[in-house]
Design a protein that fits this description.
Elements (H helix, E strand, L loop, with lengths): L14 H10 L18 H8 L2 H19 L14 H6 L2 E2 L6 H15 L2 H8 L4 E3 L7 E4 L11 H8 L2 E3 L9 E3 L4 E2 L1 H13 L2
Helix pairs in contact: 3-5, 7-8
Length: 202
Amino acid sequence: MRLSDKTGFGATTTLLDRLTASLRSSPGINLPTNAVQQSALGTSQIEDIFGTNDEFINRYKQFEDMVFDEMKNSKNLAFGSRVKDVDLMRKMGKIDLSVFNYETRRMLSDSFRDNVLRFDRLLSTAGIPGMEFPSENLYSTLMKFDVNQTEKTNHSAISFLQRTFFNVNPNKEGKLAFNFGVSNMLTSDALQRAATQQSARL
């Protein structure tokens, strides 16, 4: 069942209608006329949204530094979570926000969405993600942004979008409707390697 077919809590409008209305009324977001993404994002659009690869990676590294700094303070961790070696976790190429308590995890994920992904700009340029995947959940669905996979480029933002599913819950307001996995994120170095390998295959 697609988001455009789902109705929530007895509503007569679909959840896609609800999401579109919420985003159109959100400050900083200017959805395209066609609210849902109509074509794959190419390199020029990616750079308009995220800046150059170096600019994107610099923001990603700043976020990464913040994550591992917060991890050193046990007060920021969820009950029962233990981080023995922060430097080792970084070398493993993974970022796991699930080790944090709710407040810290929310702060970090919001920072990533706003500062690294520039989500307002992403939605204003692309619209609501154009790739939807089957979901039996009546109130949410899985989506991905459609990205051109034929252009030879090593922009790390393309690699990130290609591997990231967004769990979209239109009963939340604006961009808060879009959640992404935070327990298995790549570090900036690992993401750059993935982008380079992907480009080499084209």
